Amino acid sequence: MIFLIPLCFFPGSWWLVCSLLFFISFFLFFSFPYFFCWGSLGYFFGCDLISYGLIFLSLWICVLMVLASESVFRFYYFPGFFLFVIIFLVSMLYCTFSSVSLLSFYIFFESSLIPTLFLILGWGYQPERVQAGIYLLFYTLLASLPLLVGILFVYDYLCSLCLFLLYGACLPSGVLFYVCMIFAFLVSMPMFMVHLWLPSAHVEAPVSGSMILAGVLLKLGGYGLVRVFPLLFKFGFAFSFIWISLSLVGGFFVSLFCLRQTDLKSLIAYSSVAHMGMVIGGLMTFGYWGVCSSYVLMIAHGLCSSGLFCLSNISYERFGSRSLLVNSGLINLMPSMAMWWFLLSACNMAAPPSLNLLGEIGLLSSLVSWSWSLMFVLVLLSFFSAAYTLYLYSYSQHGSVYSGLYTCSLGYVREFLLLFLHWFPLNIIVLSVDVAVFCV
Q1: How many domains is the chain built from?
Q2: What is the pLDDT of residues 392-437, one digit of tens each?
Q3: Does residue 1 lie within any of the structural domains?
Q4: How far apart are alpha carbons 272 and 251 in whole angstroms?
Q5: Does residue 376 lie in a domain region?
Q6: CA nearest 212: which of 64, 393, 388?
Q7: Could you give the CA distance from residue 92 to residue 118 in angstroms, rounded to a whole number?
């Protein structure tokens, strides 16, 4: 991917870079690893099935980011630098997911925030994007400093940071070490009560920033938790009830917040917090079924939420507003786009045959088997997740058309292709989801 960087600055190379990224994605897809342990190992990088799925998701979302941000190219809003930031970002994500050392994972994990911050500050919409960028930076960096201390402690005790050598390692565990190792990932996901950076970052970010935030960067936290779990079994079992209770009850409260939102992007951002609450709950059960289902839901949520942000941007480009009061009656103006609103909203509420359904069913069964008392919270969480998705669809598609609109396009081929490339993998991966059962 590094060879694409000089091409970024050639005039008129936008679609060439987009096509080459598509080619790299398909090449990666057809080089799928049929092994269930680490492979392609070097001194610093390697790959297993967990990292492979997230690497492919990162590359796919970055291709769609270029496709969605055609207005940057059309209005010549620094398109060369924009492409450079995206290629740098996907390179950092590739290195993060393929790191076999905890220290290199930490370095690339933090480095992926820099291009995201550039996207928000450089191509954001409102002056408040500076405040949103500071929120993002301070929340994630301050939470990550204890993680660095924990990694150095692991190296001091074991004299190694290789991920596949940490399994079965015996560490003098303590509460402080446990919190240091997981807190950065809980903030990154984000967990309820440390989620305040996410809605502001989404609202101020351009469509590309929202897509990569929801699609991949939230998954860095879940991936990090899976990687450090071998070090945390003792205290993980002792304190898991705290994180499970907090994430599920928090997901329920966030679902109620969604029903009060009038901003399209804010509603979709809060729905990400609710979905990630279920993922945290599944991971903290420390069960095989819970971890596999969390992985499936992370992949599904990455595609679904990214598609919803694309739809909100399509409306924003025509109406100049993200308010549900303005974006109403869209089925009268853009009937073809209403079908995509319906399909992606159905996926968001885990309707069959989407990948979300499989992930949520697995998480429900794993959490209920962990404790029957969670059934009541899960019923409320599932019900209100469907409620705010129906609220999003019905308020945006039905009702009276905004009277201030003079004319608008029904939709371009590029936009329909963009939405199809979100929806199709989301519903076709179900046919080969048995791979996820063997990936953990």
Answers
A1: 1
A2: 999 999 988 877 776 677 889 999 999 999 999 999 988 877 766 6
A3: no
A4: 9
A5: yes
A6: 64
A7: 14
